[in-house]
Amino acid sequence: MQFRLKSGQEEFIFPVNPEEVTISRQKGFDTVNILSYGEFDFPQGDKVKEISFASFFPKVHDGAICSVPTADFHDPQVAMNTINRFLAQKTPLQFTISNTSVNVPVIIASHQSTFRGGEPGDVYFEITLRTWRELKAAKTASSSGKTAALVNKKPRVDMKPKSKSYTVKAGDSLSKIAKLELGNSSDWQKIYQLNKKTIGSNPNTIKPGQKLVMP
């Protein structure tokens, strides 16, 4: 098993495998505070995963603990500087663990080095990787002919309420319609006020087939 970081054509293999690897997964939430009701959590998909482990860069190659051949073995200072250089770059790296399903693009979130007095030359380290997601954008042509990028753009929801109508049937009255549609027969005046032009001056003269706008 080998732990590898690859940047373009450059590949770095960690010389000593860590004793354990922690992969952290979390559910993403947006928390909204609604007055008089408190906080509510709304799931928003998975958060970025974190992969963390600790090991060391030995000063001397030891076949009993090193997972890399001598040709791929680096001096601890060189190895540490390589990781620091990867940390500073803005493009993602490819992280793999051989013989496992771990093969993901990552960025280095943190890298900590430790020097111990009793082990001169060796460099101990802790590293945290975060899985990297590409920002997908769709291109559209604007009226001016220029190309514009739309990032995860969704159709706008029309929040304007749509008017509801009712078609008068034989035997209907405004109070009957108000009872059926609004739940209260006394609301017939609201219907009449909205439909005076259709009904006329007498609210009792509605006719079958007339379309009335509902409050």
TrEMBL record:
Q: Where is the LysM domain?
A: 164-214
- Which InterPro entries does this one have? Bact_Kbp (IPR052196), LysM (IPR018392), LysM_dom_sf (IPR036779)
Q: Which SMART domains match?
A: LysM
SUPFAM superfamilies this protein is in? Answer: LysM domain
- Pfam families xrefs: LysM
Q: What is this protein called?
A: LysM peptidoglycan-binding domain-containing protein
Which Gene3D superfamilies does the UniProt entry name for this protein? Answer: LysM domain (3.10.350.10)
Organism of origin is Paenibacillus dendrobii
Q: Which domain of life is it from?
A: Bacteria
